[in-house]
């Protein structure tokens, strides 16, 4: 009789171990399935399909942290392009300046107002002068926020008789703001100032 009870007890312990093993195995399989499903979802959500010229192209989404220096430099470049690339046309000037002022704070507006008071833009129009700016390099310090930058650029003032080349050096800071159609990178230039803007070469036209 005692032997029979011991056999029942042993069988009961074995059943408990088997049930526990089944539960543990099911839990591991469930966790693994959830993890693989989440990984697959993240991979799928990182794939973006863009329709261009009737063709579907695949793009890969990435974390903004990876692109901050690239976006910051492009923001600085586009601001300087809009602010300094001008033609002898009032609408072109107003259009470019308006785009530039969305990308910076009142320090840029103050510089614009100063140039306007000096009749700088009227002189461009009356003299049929085109102004073109090319950014040569941008120094960007991402170690401290807001991000400090220094921009080196070449400015060309094109007349019918000559072309004046200028060295332009500016500096300022970048802070994060919300993205919009007018400010796609989500940065705002602050405390912007011109350090140098001097003639380097004059080419006389034949």
Automatic annotation (TrEMBL):
The chain crosses the membrane at residues 18-38. The keyword Membrane applies. Keywords: Membrane, Transmembrane, Transmembrane helix. InterPro entries: Conjug_transposon_TraK (IPR022276). This is Conjugative transposon protein TraK.
């Amino acid at each position: 009789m005692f032997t029979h009870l011991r056999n029942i007890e042993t069988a009961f312990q074995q059943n408990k171990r088997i049930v526990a093993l089944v539960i543990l195995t099911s839990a591991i399989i469930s966790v693994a399935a959830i993890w693989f499903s989440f990984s697959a979802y993240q991979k799928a959500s990182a794939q973006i399909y863009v329709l261009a010229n009737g063709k579907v192209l695949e793009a890969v989404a990435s974390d903004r942290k990876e692109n901050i220096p690239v976006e910051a430099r492009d923001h600085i470049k586009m601001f300087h392009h809009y602010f300094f690339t001008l033609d002898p046309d009032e609408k072109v000037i107003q259009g470019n300046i308006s785009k530039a002022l969305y990308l910076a704070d009142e320090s840029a507006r103050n510089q614009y107002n100063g140039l306007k008071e000096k009749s700088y833009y009227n002189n461009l129009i009356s003299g049929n002068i085109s102004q073109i700016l090319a950014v040569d390099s941008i120094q960007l310090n991402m170690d401290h926020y807001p991000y400090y930058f220094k921009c080196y650029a070449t400015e060309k003032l094109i007349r019918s008789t000559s072309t004046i080349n200028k060295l332009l050096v500016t500096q300022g800071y970048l802070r994060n703001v919300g993205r919009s159609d007018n400010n796609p990178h989500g940065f705002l230039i602050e405390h912007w100032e011109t350090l140098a803007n001097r003639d380097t070469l004059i080419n006389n036209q034949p």
